[in-house]
User: Which sequence fits this backbone?
């Protein structure tokens, strides 16, 4: 049956090649789109969590905005011990994020003050890699790191002093002079123009909050385990107003963007599948009209209608196999090429206000999605061939033999 189907498919070589090419390039386009979406989403998540959020956070449950917790944990020690004892956690650190005023001799600006433990923060986020001038923070020093844009607005340079002011624990205005030890450039307006980084110890002293923090940020060994780790840590936290959150509950806008992108990809997949289905249907209908007498002869010498149906479906299966193999080859080569050399997209400019994001996307395969696309092509190929096959099976030998 399959040998006969193979010979029948290539009797009209041009038409078969057109259909194989349509299926192959359609599947390759689907694989490319799936890989691009997965790579884009993966880099977006990595940049969001690797720039400021972290994979898991422990913070007060009564904050107004989980992304920027503004209430302090009086004793973060028990939560820290839970994170220490979890083998899935690679590193965690205490932080203080709050809004304050940064003053220089010529200007003053409101900014987000990020007080961190420098050595741990280097492993939680990648902000230390964006330093263009100077050095990163000293845990015991009085240095400050800021973006070149905010430094330009304040008219300060490397080595000069700025004064940071924020509300202290007793309600008074705490103030401390810091020396600019590093300038970073991420390409993001928010990070380069609105954030200032200082050592945690110095900020705790300035605010009169020794040992306190308003969040514990953790990086887990596998980001896929972030939800599981957050849920487990949350269960083990002592009763009170402290909770653990994964990045999904903090960076909710990332999840919305993912859903939107997946919706667009689904629409594109449906369109491509419809094109493939119409191509197969057209091929089999044309083949049916050209081979009516042939089917009549086969029935006259004893071929049953079910055998005719199986033959046409087998021919469609052959087309599907060849088209899928071509599509997998082209798709894999495209993904491998752009995985090595990168694909330049204007995504960095689109999200640069909120996040430091590169304009080059390096593609990675999404084999589960590719397998689904390949299976869908096979299924659609068979379904599209079913109407012509059933019609051929209902032919009457006498009428078919008189067909011209």
Assistant:
């Amino acid at each position: 049956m399959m040998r006969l189907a193979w010979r029948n498919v290539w009797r009209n070589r041009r038409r078969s090649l057109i259909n194989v090419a349509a299926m192959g390039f359609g599947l390759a386009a689907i694989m490319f789109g799936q890989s691009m979406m997965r790579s884009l989403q993966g880099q977006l998540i990595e940049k969001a969590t690797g720039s400021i959020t972290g994979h898991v956070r422990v913070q007060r449950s009564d904050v107004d905005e989980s992304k920027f917790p503004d209430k302090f944990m009086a004793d973060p020690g028990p939560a820290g011990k839970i994170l220490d004892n979890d083998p899935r956690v690679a590193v965690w650190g205490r932080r203080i994020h709050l809004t304050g005023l940064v003053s220089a001799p010529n200007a003053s600006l409101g900014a987000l003050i990020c007080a961190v433990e420098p050595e741990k923060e280097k492993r939680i986020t990648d902000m230390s890699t964006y330093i263009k001038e100077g050095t990163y923070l000293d845990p015991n020093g009085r240095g400050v790191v800021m973006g070149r844009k905010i430094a330009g607005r304040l008219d300060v340079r490397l080595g000069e002093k700025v004064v940071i002011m924020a509300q202290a624990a007793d309600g008074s205005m705490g103030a401390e002079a810091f020396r600019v030890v590093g300038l970073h450039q991420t390409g993001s307006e928010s990070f380069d123009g609105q954030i200032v980084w200082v050592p945690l110890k110095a900020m705790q002293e300035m605010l009169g909050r020794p040992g306190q923090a308003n969040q514990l940020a953790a990086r887990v060994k596998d980001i896929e385990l972030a939800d599981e780790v957050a849920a487990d840590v949350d269960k083990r936290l002592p009763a009170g107003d402290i909770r653990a959150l994964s990045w999904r509950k903090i960076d909710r806008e990332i999840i919305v963007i993912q859903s939107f992108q997946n919706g667009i990809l689904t629409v594109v997949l449906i369109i491509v599948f419809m094109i493939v289905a119409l191509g197969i249907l057209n091929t089999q209908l044309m083949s049916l009209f050209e081979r009516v007498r042939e089917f009549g002869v086969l029935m006259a010498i004893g071929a049953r209608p079910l055998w005719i149906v199986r033959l046409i479906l087998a021919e469609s299966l052959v087309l599907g196999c060849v088209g899928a193999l071509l599509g997998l080859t082209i798709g894999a080569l495209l993904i491998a090429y752009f995985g090595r050399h990168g694909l330049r997209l204007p995504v960095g400019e689109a999200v640069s206000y909120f996040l430091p994001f590169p304009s080059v996307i390096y593609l990675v395969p999404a084999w589960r999605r590719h397998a689904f696309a390949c299976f869908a092509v096979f299924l659609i190929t068979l379904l599209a061939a079913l109407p012509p096959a059933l019609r051929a099976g209902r032919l009457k030998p006498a009428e078919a033999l008189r067909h011209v």
